[in-house]
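Write out the 3D structure for:
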Amino acid sequence: MKIATWNVNGIRARAAQLCEWLQRDRPDVVCLQELKATAAQIPAECKVPDYHAYWHTLKGYSGVSLHVRKDLFAVDMESRIVQVEHGNLVIASVYVPNGGKDYAAKLDFVTKLAAWASQLHAEGRELLLCGDMNIARTEIDVHPKERKPNAVGQRPEERALFENLLGEHLVDVGRAFDPDNPNLFTWWAPWRNLRARNIGWRLDYLLAAPAIAQRATSCVVQADVGTSDHAPVVMTV
């Protein structure tokens, strides 16, 4: 099974690329972020009939969605964070506010996200949290040329909250497969040819319950896909 997360940075601008990618890779579960569109503005071609889909779109908000192949399993969609439930499994698509305009709101969001994940773990649920966390987890997750101690997304208190979110019940699958790679990035600022030079940050994650992480066979960044400033991240289980 393939589970993918992608911050498309505007689904209307990326509609054709999204369709091409879905046809090429055929992921079983797709989590999208930064739709930047209301429900009425979602392009028709993005409403792929092979998938159950939940679009969480509000005017003025970035918007996220979650898509599950109809032949995979029956699903129960909920909208608190945009999640799908199947037995003990919970898959959630999440976009953490970047914090540039309201840093306190970002910290509060991640604090509440960690509490929610901890509660699911206490209930015996297996969580797969997918999306743009807008936090580079450690120094290795930022290219040396982009490291700034007080930059939002790199601050110590953000990273501490990220570690609290992980706790002992979530695994950073991408880093688990590539623990020492200093060039593992998912986002590149859209100037100075930074993507082609791979001068970026790792902001997009698949965070999985240990039992799910142990079954994973790969987790890769598809830096060649699309024109968003983020790349898809795809885990195979």
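The first strand starts at residue 2 and ends at 7.
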